[in-house]
UniProtKB/TrEMBL annotation:
Keywords: Signal. The keyword Signal applies. Residues 1-26 form the signal peptide. It comes from the Bacteria. InterPro entries: Phosphate_ABC_transporter. Gene3D superfamilies: Periplasmic binding protein-like II. Coiled coil: none annotated. This is Phosphate-binding protein PstS. The lineage of its organism: Bacteria, Pseudomonadati, Planctomycetota, Planctomycetia, Pirellulales.
Length: 328
């Protein structure tokens, strides 16, 4: 088959796939994301290596399958095993994309590497909602937070609370000491939770590290004073209690879809990080993959794995940041 014929066949398949995957009854306003559909520009080949934390393995697989539906000749190597090595040092000659839960202003992910000279760029692609989980018999009904007078969620004034009674739990004969469980310090979520709970006086929380989400939930389930922050993307856990968050009198359940719009604050950014050339541009394959991730197709994949998509305004900000006139 000639190159022209291959291109024609490619476009027919791509357009057929796109049309068949949009429900006939769906209006733009009915979809959980307002992102534009992904429209491939031309056939692609090559390999993309995706690295990141183990928690993002399934999301990486969904994006791989979705992208390969448009570009079947692109291969993927997914290595989500909690590596914190900067993208610029992993494999400069390869197409490496990191799925990260770090803040986009994290300096390690946005500067030129002094050893390799390789620059990376990060962009926001979604959001992870965290839920506070406690022992089923914890008497606390909800975590109350008044940002104007209470700097952090688990604080009493400017100091860290040490017992649940200080946070409004029903009094018992013996004070229930707060035990905070969290991920291993090598996990991106560790730094996020630490910053989230650092008191107004700068006191960092004493966090008991666990090796996995399962271990963290099991520890909370055995500790009456235990608390941890669990990703809503992993589903509602069975053996612990989810605490809603009451902010200035308004109670928000993190498992309710309207939580973010209502101001639920325990939201962690999900970003992708990849190397750029001397002009600040991604290579063609990486560029198209990120366009897919920020498209309606990629955002729906993200929703399937329990993450929260970007708003229209957030998508537009990424478009400007990446220098794209139109997200395709």
């Amino acid at each position: 088959m000639s190159p022209i014929a291959k291109t024609v066949v490619y476009w027919v398949l791509a357009l057929t796939f796109a049309l068949n995957n949009i429900p006939a009854s769906a209006n733009d306003d009915d979809l959980p994301t307002q992102a534009a559909p992904y429209v491939p520009q031309s056939p692609l080949t090559g390999e993309i290596r995706i690295v990141g934390s183990e928690a993002m393995q399934q999301l990486a697989v969904l994006w791989k399958r979705g992208f390969q539906a448009f570009h079947p000749d692109v291969e993927f190597r997914i290595e989500c095993q909690t590596t914190n090595e900067p993208v610029s040092r992993l494999a400069p000659s390869q197409k490496v994309v990191r799925l990260s839960g770090h803040d986009l202003l994290n300096r390690d992910e946005s500067q030129s590497d002094s050893e390799t000279g390789i620059e990376t760029r990060a962009c926001l692609v979604g959001q992870e909602i965290l839920a506070a989980v406690v022992h089923p018999d914890n008497p606390t009904v909800s975590l109350k937070w008044a940002p104007s007078v209470q700097p952090k969620i688990l604080s009493k004034g400017d100091e860290m609370a040490t017992t649940w009674g200080q946070l409004g739990a029903s009094p018992k004969s013996e004070p229930i000491v707060i035990s905070l469980y969290g991920p291993d310090p090598s996990q991106p979520k560790y730094a996020f939770v630490e910053e989230l709970l650092t008191s107004g006086s700068g006191e960092k929380p004493a966090m008991i590290s666990t090796r996995s989400s399962q271990e963290m939930l099991a520890a909370v389930g055995e500790d009456l004073g235990g608390i941890a922050f669990h990703s809503v993307a992993r589903g509602r856990p069975a053996d612990v209690k989810v605490l809603p968050l009451t902010i200035d009198g308004t109670t928000l359940d993190p498992f309710r879809p309207e939580a973010i719009e209502a101001g639920y604050p325990l939201v962690r950014p999900v970003s992708v990080v990849a190397a750029v050339d001397e002009f600040g541009d991604f290579d063609r394959l990486t560029d198209q993959f990120i366009r897919y991730v920020l498209s309606r197709d990629g955002q729906l994949d993200l929703i399937k794995d329990g993450y929260f998509p970007l708003s229209q305004e957030q998508l537009h900000r990424q478009e400007i940041k990446l220098g794209w006139e139109v997200l395709k």
